[in-house]
Design goal:
Blueprint (H helix, E strand, L loop, with lengths): L10 H23 L3 H9 L11 E3 L5 E3 L7 E5 L3 H11 L4 E5 L2 E9 L2 H15 L4 E4 L6
Antiparallel strand pairs: 1-2, 3-5, 3-6, 4-5
Length: 144
């Protein structure tokens, strides 16, 4: 079958128009989808939270913001291995998780709690959801 094109048909011009149209769709798609990508990633990895939680930031008695370890919360949820690879995934759930060190070596402090049960519950949730082996340790064992 032979198709006769109109005399004013320009194949190069037509191809250029299709390329522009496809590039426009891709650009619009990227700008529409990019804002929801963090929400999708967070909801998949951090299903145990409705939204990311700050578990290392506290307001002190004198209204100062304290980040890190406080004496009234001695049970620390931490990760002692593969911390460079896992820090972004943990921070997606707990943005104030931080890398630190003690006499035991480097670790990610994920959170601290005043009682062991709450710390263990979070550790179990992280272990099950993120497939990361975190543990709970009493602050005194860190040797700081």
């Amino acid at each position: 079958m032979i198709v006769n094109m109109p005399p004013n048909f320009d194949a190069k011009q037509n191809l250029k128009a299709w390329r522009q149209l496809i590039c426009g769709w891709v650009t619009v798609g990227m700008f529409c989808l990019l804002p929801i990508v963090p929400v999708l990633a967070q909801s998949e990895d951090c299903s145990f939270f409705a939204s990311p939680q700050d578990l290392n930031t506290f307001e002190g008695e004198d209204s100062r913001v304290v980040i890190g370890q406080v004496e009234s919360r001695p049970y620390v949820v931490l990760l002692t291995h593969d911390f460079q690879d896992n820090l972004p995934a943990i921070r997606a759930c707990i943005p104030d998780a931080f890398l630190t060190s003690s006499r035991l070596g480097s670790y990610i402090q994920i959170a601290s709690f005043s009682n062991y049960r709450d710390a263990r519950n979070l550790a179990n949730q992280i272990n099950n959801s993120l497939d990361v082996n975190v543990r709970v340790i009493h602050y005194s064992r860190l040797g700081l």
